[in-house]
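Milestone M4 deliverable, item 7.
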Amino acid sequence: MLLAKIVCACFAWSIVILSIASVWFSWEKGRKHLRRLHQIPCNRCVFFTNDYRLKCTVNPTQACSEEAINCIDFEVKIKTCNSCHNSPNKSYITFLRKVFPVQYLQKKDIESKYP
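Output delivered:
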């Protein structure tokens, strides 16, 4: 009877230890995978369009995947590039449209001053 209790206790503790080890290894594997995914440079590239239909104009099949980590066509995006959707001119135009009524501020006047 004592031998059965010892065997059951060892079996229960081995299940607990194996479960904890399994959770730990899964956590580390996920962390390594996430760290690798954060190395994808597409959102910082000039050729990234930020459109789900065509993510990259140069390498559309590699865009936003692990293949794009060592992309030879990568160029750093500057703030005034075409793929930036949050340009300062657009926000300034919307600010002007909110502040001034439409009859005082014509659309062609805004677009000629702030293209």
